[in-house]
Write a structure and sequence with these properties.
With 328 residues, the chain is α+β, with helices and mostly antiparallel strands. The protein has four helices and 25 strands. The chain has a five-stranded mixed sheet. The chain has a four-stranded antiparallel sheet with strand order 1-2-6-5. Strands 4-3-7-8 form a four-stranded antiparallel sheet. A hairpin with a 2-residue loop joins strand 24 and strand 25. The longest helix is centred in the middle third of the chain and has 23 residues. Keywords: Immunoglobulin domain. This is Myomesin 3. InterPro entries: Ig-like_dom, Ig-like_dom_sf, Ig-like_fold, Ig_I-set, Ig_sub, Ig_sub2.
Amino acid sequence: GIYKKNRVGKGSRSRGNSISTSPQSRNHQRRHMVTNTKKETRFQWFFQKKEFPDGQYDPQTGAGLLCMEELSKEDKGVYRAEVSDERGEDNTILDLTGEALDAIFTELGRIGALSATPLKIQGTEEGIRLFSRVKYYNVSYMKTTWFHKEKRLESGDRVRAGTTLDEIWLHILDPKDSDKGKYTLEIAAGKEVRQLSADLSGQAFEDALAEHQRLKALAIIEKNRAKVVRGLPDVATIMEDKTLCLTCVISGDPIPEVSWLKNDQPVTFLDRYHMEVKGSEVTITIERVNSEDSGRYGVFVKNKYGSEKGQVTISVFKHGEEDKVLKM
């Protein structure tokens, strides 16, 4: 036990050490119990002989806990828990390599497979998506297979399958009537095999297809609507009698109509005011500016899919007021 000579901490070895994997999350824990400690006793975790700062220790319960979120092969190595004070020190070691690490990943895979939720159907911008959420997924220790009408599916031009740390999904792009039917997801992790099924037909197919068409239409609107992409500052200052040029970049299909506003009123392009449109660039020029040109300007773009306005506040200062402007 720890400090055996002084009968300190003997519970740490007599109780043993354990690794526990919580089925409630992707957190993986290494727990070490210590007894007969003092206020000055120090508990520290080490990884590959270097201090590991993420460990926790509760002196009231004697529990030392090391929690590793989203365990990966990078966590492979030797872990050591050390307790010490003026009476001496002791430690215990966990060799998390080889078969020990494989055993943890195998158990995590089993837990992940058991945690898989029933398949859900979701209409998306690109098509129809089937998915199951899991508490943990590891590509090295879990295998997934999708079936449509008992026929194994392979990823292709219109069907894509994939996983994240907490989800297994199948995406059917540009869905057609031939995509209707029963879909089955098979999850294998060691000796554990689960099958989840969903029927993509009838009202389920019609609802998902309608949502797909709605989102696709919204995406087309958002992509093509008139926008002010960039260019206008929030505020611009200029000395009177100078020429002011403001340029912004717009987008939209069809090409947007463009107008300028001053204090929310249309700008008339005569005399000193000029507007030029070159492709996606729109420029307004005001020659020989004066104090009456100060105000809030906006460029308004519009097409059949929508409209947008970009704004800038113009401040014209007189000769000799440069110092005041710099101090603002």
